[in-house]
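User: These chains co-purify. Model them together.
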Amino acid sequence: MARIDLDLAHSYKPDPQQDADYALLPLKMTFDDGGAYALLGPSGCGKTTMLNIISGLVQPSHGSLRFDGDDVTRKTPQARNIAQVFQFPVIYDTMTVAENLAFPLKNRGVAPDRIKARVGKIAEMLEMSGQLNTRAAGLAADAKQKISLGRGLVREDVSAVLFDEPLTVIDPHLKWQLRRKLKQIHHELKLTLIYVTHDQVEALTFADQVVVMTRGKAVQVGSADALFDRPAHRFVGHFIGSPGMNFLPASLVPGAPAGSQSLGVRPEYVTLAQAGDAGALPATVVQAQDIGTYWLVTAQVGEHTVRLRLAPEARAPQAGAAVHLGLVGPRTCFYAADETLIADGSPA
Amino acid sequence: MQLTLADIEHRVGPATHLYPMDLALQPNTVSVLLGATQAGKTTLMRLMAGLDVPTAGRVSVDGHDVTRMPVRQRNVAMVYQQFINYPSMTVFDNIASPLKLRGALDKAAIAQRVQALADKLHIDPFLKRLPAELSGGQQQRVALARALAKDAPLMLLDEPLVNLDYKLREELRDELSALFAAGSSTVVYATTEPTEALLLGGWTAVMDGGELLQYGPTAEVFHRPASIRVARAFSDPPMNLLERGALRLGLLLPNAPPEATIGLRASALRVQQRPGDLSLPGTVELAEISGSDTFVHVATSAGELVAQLSGVHFFDLGARVTLYLDPAQVYVFGADGGLLQAPARKSD
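Assistant: Joint model of the two components:
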């Protein structure tokens, strides 16, 4: 297993001039040995480019990357000793489950008794012990993808295991079980895992640290609660959570920290306030939707739309109602003109 | 317009795709067709559009029988999962095509209408481009604008947002809801996602295995599912269902037979205790984090349960946790699967 250090940039164009020419803007980042990471962002954000640079499928146009201090920038994927799992099962249909799992080890000349032990262990973790002698051809798509996962995890000596949207083909009802498996496996095997996805549930559930990316830039690396409660960049506030964070001009509220241009507050943390309350702003309710498990209220503060989420047992104000909204509290964040966090309301 | 399907049925060879059903669509609003893949949603829409003729039964529009009237003679707009546009036409010409075909408007009026729709769907900067030069989200916006340009009394949308990133889906869903509300079309919108149905509001028809299970105002169907099958189809995460659950939970339900199945919404389970709660101790199997919510899978003596907690919460795999439940929040289903009792609502 390895610690991975990136200090690089990548452009698919020969002579990049401006930010938009880069698939990956200059960045410095470290993936710790044994950590579980997710690269999360919309399509075109650069997450797959970053994964391909780590695996060696793409050479960065600028800078270098190191595995445990060794410069591997020019090394082939084979030489980097990386295991990969893709969106779709990559297995041998004519082989049995056991033969499929053993294949990466056989290729490396591992002794037969060690192969047997390792295949047994991985099959047990994936709950496929009973199917070891079944031919892969007859299995359902999710079982095949489990074999793919197993093949990615079977070698103990890899630098890292890279996953590219590995649960795409899995039936929604079975996804959580595989997410659970992956988490258990990470706890047991302590491999360095890097997981690319555009799905926030997958990223936040799987990873200890999530790298949120947009337009070629990693805007925050953090745990799920940090991304939710203290988004370091407005994009993170917007992208994490459904609906995402509300943003308003900081000038609307008294006492905004110096240099703040906007305030961000999640729908979960907006409150219904009284007219006299400090910092309460008058608003008009546009819509109150019963989302079954909560009320989603849309209100207008001047020209700005604010959404708030109320408990199902709350009495939600109806469309047209004049209300006051509490927008400043311990979870309110303030952002500078460049969209980065300058202060949050949490006690120091 | 009033679309009525009377005793319709659809068979293809020996296979029944739709079992006999009656459905009178609520006019001038959105009706969601909710069900898993293969539930019969697309088949039903094709009958509504006139793309297929039902094996039996009658389709009527405002009282006129149109069962055998081909789609070309009906005034229907359709949007599909795939982004379908005319590849050799510009975005402008794509949106204008239904208006030109109808021939009722002059050039200036067409240009005005195209511009208005492009503004609403945020594609006005791309009017001179070809669809292939746009992102997936923009291409689907073009297809939606073309369907809206038709201003047909009946608009059918078959999972129109399924191939988009979830943030784009959120945005477009909001825009569509506003457009539907502003227009006077009868809209049918197929989706596999319960949350999408709740966000769209209107009315919902729950389908499963080619059967129409229940049709009513969306929130009412959600809060009073007529059967276990409806409850299962219309909940995400799935409703926790406990066979002979009163016994397993130690619940006293004087009006329910002992074999009744108890349904618990994930959102009804909490980790904070309130007076009068039932306690369900167990161990954590996985905590899935969506950002706005955490879904905790817990193995308890009553069975495996999923709890939905607002915000981000961390639980170690295998950690001990106690779930709490207000006994008034249970659903009770009889031996035949029919609803016997639903939690009372404030608005009831």
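The first strand of chain B starts at residue 3 and ends at 12.
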